Amino acid sequence: MTHTAPLTCTPASQEPTIHSAYEPQTGTWQYIVGDTATLRAIIIDPVLDYDAATHALSTHTADALLALVDANGYTVDRILETHVHADHLTAAAYLQSRLAELQGGNRPRICIGKRITNVQKVFGARYGVPVEEYEGAFDVLLEDGEEFAVGGLSVTVMPLPGHTPDHIGYMVGANVFCGDSLFHADLGSARCDFPGGSAAALYKSAQKLLRLPEHVKIWTGHDYVSKERATPVPCLTVRNHRARNKHFAQGVTQPEFVARREERDAMLAEPKLLHAALQVNIRAGRLPRPTALGLCLLHLPLKLEGAGW
Predict the structure, then answer these.
(1) What is the pLDDT of residues 278-304, one digit of tens each?
(2) Which of 22, 59, 94, 300 has the fewest CB atoms within 10 Å, measured from its CB?
(3) Domains in the chain: boundaries
């Protein structure tokens, strides 16, 4: 995992210090957002390492976040999810447990948008997850437009459905952590073909972001490097997106965007970590209840082709 330099915005009394941490295996940006005056902080979209070939879980990436918290003397009040991710496992439950130990029992709350309950029911039924393992898994279900404090900072919940129906963002000062709503300008936007996803809804969410003042920074949930751009970039300004975003610049209309997004989504393969990610993430990062032999098991749906089954 690599870290960008912390970004401190002004004025310090209203703007956070932002530490961005990139996880290259899944192309995920994670964030620690801190108030330097009070040393209170939040963590956004943390990653739990999972090797699909060996089914091994590890905490290297999450432990690097803990080291960054410790190096800055932060007390973490909340762990925030923008949505139920389908491409990586969340480290929220692991971090909550470790931070409670490190903070003398001060247990950060795991938070997500209120529409998570519908997503949990859909994927709980799909994978046979017992209701008691996901119901109440998140400590706080956030309302659209809700505001809460982190030290001297104010965080506002911004509904951003489209990529998934439960998707939200977090506005802190002149910064929005938009999850998978917008990617880097040369990538455009995220897919919308998951259950409850909607390209039309994502268009409206993107317009909401692009109507913000042009100096506001939009911090993305993912970036994918290429030969043309070898260094991942965590944020661009609203001005950058208005001028350069591959899917929204130059006055693209909703019908145009929907047609292009749906055509693109129809060609995409499912995320490599889809089944493991969804089953763990609807549990807020907690593992399935162990069997009598002490094994934590996930379900893998089979695709049956041909006749005779």
Answers:
(1) 999 999 999 999 999 999 999 999 888
(2) 300
(3) 2-281
**Cα Rg for the chain, rounded, in angstroms?**
19
Are 168 and 116 in contact by the 8 Å Cβ rule? The answer is no
Q: What is 2-281's CATH topology?
A: Metallo-beta-lactamase; Chain A (3.60.15)
Cα 143 from Cα 181, distance rounded (Å) = 18
How many angstroms separate the Cα of 238 from the Cα of each of 30, 210, 221, 222, 292?
20, 6, 16, 17, 53
Give the end-to-end CA distance of the chain in Å, rounded to a whole number.
45
Pairing of strands 75-80, 109-113: parallel
* Number of CB atoms found within 10 A of residue 14's CB: 14
pLDDT digits (tens, 9 = 90+) for 218-245: 999 999 988 888 999 999 999 999 999 9
What pTM was estimated for this model as a whole?
Answer: 0.93
